[in-house]
Amino acid sequence: MKRIMLIGRTSAGKTSFCQVLHHHEIKYKKTQAIEIIDNAIDTPGEYVENRALYRALVVTAADADVVILVQDCTDPQCFFAPNISGMFNRPTIGLATKIDLVQNEEEVLQAMAKLELAGCEKVFKISSTQNIGVDEVRKYLGIAE
């Protein structure tokens, strides 16, 4: 099983995705420090929101097999620099989250474009609360049902 590391802005859906990925009950909680949830490394949103904390992401990525960048489809802002994935030296995929909350498909396409610009090799559209697209990510990561 691959160890993953999730990176994204505060409230992007990293912790919820970890919970649903591992069949845990979804309970919102603010991630205050790096947490390990089964095979996932869940990082606080502040780590990508503050460039001074980038080195913590780089060091933590050394323990991951795959880095996952998480972009909320309902959030017009993006904190991922173009090709940010290059600094991790790991395969990087993207999650366009909260697809069930968008007003129109254009928001999903914009989130996906942001993740592609950040250097994601593959981008998945998901909704953790509706369990949409999660099985596809599990299959890609080699996580058994």
From TrEMBL:
Q: State any GO BP term from the record.
A: biogenic amine metabolic process
Does the UniProt entry include the keyword Transferase? no
Entries under InterPro entries matching the protein? EutP_PduV, P-loop_NTPase
Mind listing the UniProt keywords for this protein, alphabetically?
Nucleotide-binding
Listed GO MF terms: ATP binding
| Gene3D superfamilies (UniProt xref) | P-loop containing nucleotide triphosphate hydrolases
Question: Superkingdom, according to UniProt?
Answer: Bacteria
Protein family membership: Belongs to the EutP/PduV family.
Q: What is the name of the protein in this document?
A: EutP/PduV family microcompartment system protein
